[in-house]
Specification:
With 309 residues, this protein is of the alpha/beta class. It contains 9 helices and 10 strands. The strands form 2 sheets. The protein has a 5-stranded parallel β-sheet with strand order 2-1-3-4-5, sandwiched between helices. A 5-stranded mixed β-sheet has the order 7-8-6-9-10, with helices on both faces. Helix 2 packs parallel to helix 3 (66-75).
Length: 309
């Protein structure tokens, strides 16, 4: 692994080359440094696929000034969590207050103190890592390691709104482990926890596209969001999940269905619109899951809601 690729990325934004050279000299030994000489280029770099971990942003620049760059960064979901340290030649409370109100993490003045720049950068990168760790812990299920119900709710809501905007399809899946209570009675709870972990891993591996999303919905129930997927596609993914779980060959001697762990899957698909509630899709997937259980379990039932609306 290239040592440079593991370094945190710092973007320096300043229209004065001497300032860029000075800051780069301070930071290059410990960080991967890039630069922009105007606000427009800075916004482009920040919004790219591999954004910087922190931005040092001069306030006074031609065209788009640092305040406006900061405001735009903080208004976009993709860039709002990048710490911004504003740089100014003016040490005025009003300037600092304005920057902090726009969402800047800190404010330093020229001429630069090498010790202060390094300390502020290190502090805000450490805070960012800490915040990301907390966000990860709050979004992922501690037992299975896949996203939890809270993260599912956030993701599903975002995808619903995105599908409304783009007039695209959206499918939702509900997946339930068949006779899991019987499994726990026979093999006890440590085995049950291991079963949940293996099932979660297999379900997550059953989806291929980057936008497809699998989460633990609660207990032995899981959910999957499939953007841009019609009823036929959702059913295909459901069958893939069902087969993959069956192929795990986890013994379940007390299951009336098979002598191994199986799942029932319910899918629902719709073209979301502004006059519909997202609950329509959740109810549809729940109804399909109920039907799969009613018909004997270890099966996939699908519902195309577009024929009803």
């Amino acid at each position: 692994m290239n040592p440079e690729s593991s370094k945190k990325k710092i973007l320096i934004v300043d229209d004065t080359p001497e300032n860029i050279r000075m800051l780069a000299y301070m930071l290059k030994p410990n960080y991967s440094v890039s630069f922009a000489t105007d606000g427009k280029k800075a916004l482009k770099i920040a919004g790219a696929k591999n954004p910087p971990d922190l931005i040092l942003l001069d306030i006074v620049m031609p065209g788009i000034d640092g305040y406006e760059v900061c405001r735009r960064l903080k208004s976009e979901k993709r860039t709002r969590n990048i710490p911004v340290i504003l740089i100014s030649a003016v040490n005025e409370d009003a300037d600092e207050t304005k920057g902090l109100e726009l969402g800047a993490a800190d404010y330093i003045t020229k001429p630069f103190s090498m010790a202060i720049v390094k300390a502020r950068v290190r502090t805000h990168l450490e805070l960012k890592i800490h915040r990301e760790t907390l966000e990860h812990l709050s979004s992922f299920d501690g037992l299975t390691g896949i996203p939890n119900r809270q993260r599912f709710d956030e993701y599903f809501d975002a995808e619903w709104r995105g599908a409304v905007r783009e007039s695209s399809l959206l499918s939702l899946m509900m997946i339930d482990i068949d006779y899991f209570r019987n499994f726990n009675e026979k093999y006890l709870y440590m085995a049950g926890d291991d079963c949940l972990r293996r099932v979660a891993k297999a379900l997550a591996a059953s989806v291929r596209r980057s936008g497809d999303f699998v989460a633990r919905y609660g207990g032995e129930e899981f959910a999957a969001v499939l953007p841009g997927t019609d009823a036929s596609g959702a059913r295909s993914v459901g069958e893939n999940m069902r087969n993959n779980i069956e192929s795990l060959n986890i013994p379940n001697a007390l299951s009336p269905v098979m002598n191994c762990v199986t799942v029932s899957v319910g899918t629902a698909s719709i073209s979301p619109s502004r006059n519909l509630s997202a609950n329509v899709l959740i109810r549809g997937a729940d109804d399909s899951l109920y039907q799969a259980k009613k018909e004997g379990r270890n099966r996939v039932k699908s519902l195309n809601l577009d024929i009803f609306v």
